[in-house]
Amino acid sequence: MAAITAKMVSELREKTGAGMMDCKKALVAADGDMDVAIDNLRKSGAAKAEKKSGRATNQGKVLTAIEGKAAAVAEVLCETDFAAKTDKFINLVTGIAKNAIARDGEGDVTAAAQEAEKANLTDHIGVIGENMQIRRVTKWTTDNGVFAAYHHDGGRVSVLVEVEGETDAAVLNDICLHIAAFRPTYIDPAAVPAEVVAKEKEIAAAADPKLANKPAEMLDKILAGKINRFYSEVCLMNQPWVRDDKTTLAKFRPNLVVKRFVRWEVGEEL
User: Fold this and answer.
1) Domain 59-162 has what CATH class?
2) Are the C-beta atoms of 153 and 59 separated by less than 8 Å?
3) Are strands 244-248 and 240-241 parallel, antiparallel or unpaired?
4) pLDDT tens for residues 167-180?
């Protein structure tokens, strides 16, 4: 039987992140063979992950990665807020976003990330001791755009945005802050589906009995005003601007184009 030294245990712990006692047990079982001990710990981690797979995951982080002309955002869930705040978990989520950038794909790459990160996730479940799941991952690439991101409450809410045109770091940061705070659904009125506009007109007309007998031309003008107010509630470019509610992003930066954005919150309904 090989002698298991403190140095060997420390080395295994550094390589795997497992607890000291788990590392010692793995080395004893492997008769001091470091590679076998690592395999044993990974197998043990898989067994632990299987046992934990049915436990609820409603905490976690949404974090992003931006590298040049590519960006990604990832949401990973765990069981407790305590685990979600650990450096190990935060590094896991950030790493999953970075790995998504390195792989092929555009848009929703959740399935690819879940498959590629299986072993990595299993290892972390074994070390952190909680069930975890990769809930969603999105990757974007751009030719002419610029990416920016913002994490609120350490990643409880995160924003990723792509813009083109007149911008700078301060404006990009404010756009992200605005999206986080005001939760726009669309970029601008042109992005609102026609059926959504029609439904809003129907609701507005039904909500005010005084409109029932209005001439068609007058009714159209009244409803147009109500729809403009609707746009100011749901469209990023039309909402009162986060830094000055007397203006809008469309007026403040007329030469800026927001190409796309996401605002993800941990555990929200999809």
Assistant:
1) alpha beta
2) no
3) antiparallel
4) 999 999 999 999 99
